[in-house]
Design a protein that fits this description.
Strand content: 25-35%
Radius of gyration: 17 Å
Strand order of the largest sheet: 1-4-5-6-7
Shape: globular
Low-confidence stretches: none
Number of strands: 7
Number of helices: 5
Order of helices and strands: EEEHEHEHEHHE
Length: 171
């Protein structure tokens, strides 16, 4: 039996707007006001404090969740990813995922995420129905959600997923 692979989760706690259904720790903020580098420094500092206690595991997945990690400057996200890679061995099939919202994701963002090593994006489509999107407090519409998925595929992201919420009140 081979040893278990370590999964690393990095939380990015900012969004353009807090969705009323979201239970995750996040706050609304303008992207220009975010402490992109300072937050990356804090995550790397936390990693430095905790890594020694973990020994020498092999990392099988890294997941950037939130909040809206697609708001994070890709270079800073990449710096955190580089710190993880420098402290742990990586599995040959290492998956690096980033949660993205259609309102902060396009072809250029997809390319920038690929450039720092991301291999999967999970796009928070939630619904394509205008009424449900409004009820859920989402900033995007159906066409822009589909555009985000197409942009990810066109940019060459190896794995693309779209989150959908089912069972919304009245559904």
């Amino acid at each position: 039996m081979s040893p278990a692979k370590l999964g690393v989760y990095v939380h990015f706690p900012w969004c353009l707007r807090k969705c009323p259904y979201c239970d995750f720790s996040s706050v609304a903020a303008e992207p220009r006001a975010l402490p992109h580098a300072a937050y990356a420094n804090a995550v790397i500092s936390e990693l430095d404090r905790r890594a020694p206690a973990l020994g020498a595991p092999t990392v099988g997945s890294v997941f950037f969740g939130g909040g809206t990690p697609s708001l994070w400057q890709p270079a800073e996200l990449g710096r955190v990813l580089g710190a993880i890679r420098s402290r742990f061995a990586a599995a040959g099939d290492l998956e690096i995922s980033v949660e993205c919202n259609p309102s902060s994701f396009d072809y250029d963002r997809a390319r920038a995420l690929l450039d720092v090593g991301v291999s999967r994006v999970s796009i928070g489509v939630q619904s394509l129905d205008a009424g449900r999107l409004a009820f859920l407090g989402r900033l995007h519409d159906g066409p822009s959600a589909l555009r985000a998925v197409r942009d990810a595929v066109r940019a060459g992201v190896p794995r693309v997923s779209a989150d959908l919420i089912f069972g919304v009140h009245g559904q």
